[in-house]
Amino acid sequence: MKPFYITTPIYYVNDKPHIGHAYASLACDVMARFKRLSGEEAFFLTGTDEHGQKIEKSAEKAGMSPQAFCDMNAALFKDLTKAMNFSNNDFIRTTEERHKKGAQHFWKVIEKHIYLDKYAGWYAVRDEAYYQEDELKKLQPGENGAPAWAKDLEKGDTERARAGQIKLFAPATGAEVEWVEEESYFFKLSEFTKPLLEFYEKNPSFVQPESRFNEVKRFVETGLKDLSISRTTFKWGIPVPGDEKHVIYVWLDALVNYITAIGYPNMDNQWPADVHVIGKDILRFHAVFWPAFLMAANLPLPKKIVATGWWTNEGQKISKSLGNVIDPLKLIEEFGLDQTRYFLMREIPFGNDGNFSRDRMITVINSELANTIGNLCQRTLGFINKNCGGILPNGSLNSETSHITNPYHKLGFGSTYPIYSEVVNKCKFDFAIEIAWGLANRANQYIDEQAPWTLKKTDPQKMEEVLYILTESIRQIGILLQPFIPQSAAKILVAVGYPEAQANKGIPFSELSTPIKPGTPLPAPTPVFPRFQETAK
Ligand code: ME8
């Protein structure tokens, strides 16, 4: 059977990883883990984008050869996959032989849609993207930074910009453009305007969120221009087969990673991808150029493109020049791995922009993880350990208490998973966490209402039932949280009696509908989520 195939963008190695990289990959990891625990095979790909002028310039600045520079930074991205506990099946680097060969083969396959001409226009090295003149804005000499303040172009401005007197920017990304004039191969993108619009029509959920899909359609509806797909003014790229003074345009090179990683031209059975997770800024490349290239190569198109929003830092746009880039390794070091994973998936509805706030992160860690989930585990399992000899007492689920273990109890027993699964499949990760967290919240209210410490004296049988229900809740919470916080979820599952090896491998969601057995031995609990205490600096 074809595995579920999910990909991250491949990351430029001009610098070390930042929160945006960790975020897109984390979403893929959650989805891949969710699929595997649902009984499906999943193939999760990530990697690094290593060619192009931006990397060549950065290597030069660092006084290194491009390859040595790429090796150094690609290692940081590989390390991040370990540090974030990503379950990727492969990691592709575009400087690998398997990729270079595959990309050149792809070029030859689409060759009948390619012609040689001359490109004269604007190019942003930072975005590795071509821009039309009417997309640009200007800054006068002496004006700085944010192109949001930039003005529309006036007559004569493009000449002034070409003479270096003023700067032009692509306002959508803030990248400065430069004038490029060179011989270039072109891809007949214009031929694909109609086929793409027809494809969008037939696949109304091709791009998510929907609002972003509308942007894509509007762009294509205006009519596509042929796309320059080779460069000659620098060397760091994959040579065009048969004309080695050209290197393949870095975006064509990068996009084909999704197939070269799985063996193109002799692909395994993963293709087409089920989901490409990307940032909102690179949607045009994935929802327009990539499908057109695939159509030209007669290959099936990916099923879905999901665009993430962007994080700001304490309300400010994240940028190197502002010095406010968030290093995911620092977050892990300070707050813990699963705390970081939880916060990133919990804080903003996936697809929206969102703000990173240190205070919010501490609040979420302390209130949701430590006080709600951690505390529930500690007081329930600690109580059983102390008062019931570490053996789960007698009890069963019944209609009176089903609302504790199942937030959707009105829909019937076992209805948590269908809803949870529906929301995860729609990338509503915050909602999926809310389901698990909601269970913990409810269980905490239940323990307060029932007060097993009092029942111990007044009604020991009822106390046993209460403890049983609470333990089953904890088991459900542990299972549901596995894709998000795998290590902590495994700890929770060990605490409700699963053998460590089994818990670490993952407990399938099918086990949600088999309640825990009374008499299960429960080890003495160890705290899962410590409270975060600010240390004096
Ligand atoms: O674009 N918040 O690579 P990249 C969230 N190599 N996401 C952010 C972000 C932020 N503040 N800043 C950047 C590339 N990103 C290409 C991809 S795929 C065939 C080639 C996201 O390293 C950004 O949206 O510049 C993008 O999806 C991702 O980081 C990688 O960016």
Record the SSE blueprint.
Blueprint: E1 4-7, E2 11-12, H1 19-37, E3 42-49, H2 53-61, H3 66-83, E4 90-93, H4 97-109, E5 114-124, E6 129-131, E7 137-139, H5 157-162, E8 167-170, E9 175-176, E10 178-187, H6 193-202, E11 207-208, H7 210-221, E12 227-228, E13 230-231, E14 239-240, E15 243-248, H8 250-255, H9 257-260, E16 275-279, H10 283-296, E17 305-308, E18 311-313, E19 316-317, H11 328-335, H12 337-347, E20 354-356, H13 358-387, H14 402-405, H15 416-425, H16 429-450, H17 452-458, H18 460-481, H19 486-495, H20 500-505
Parallel strand pairs: 1-3, 1-16, 2-3, 3-4, 11-17, 16-17, 18-20
Antiparallel strand pairs: 5-6, 5-10, 7-8, 8-9, 10-12, 13-15, 14-15, 18-19
The structure holds ligand ME8.
Number of helices: 20
Structural class: alpha/beta
First and last CA, distance: 55 Å
Please count the beta strands (DSSP E, at least 2 residues each).
20
- The overall pLDDT, averaged over residues, is 93
Small molecules bound: ligand ME8
- Our Rg estimate from Cα atoms comes to 27 Å
User: How would you sum up the global shape?
Assistant: elongated
Provide the low-confidence segments as ranges. none
Largest sheet features: 7 strands, parallel
Strand fraction: 15-25%
Provide the helix percentage. 40-55%
Oligomer designation? single chain
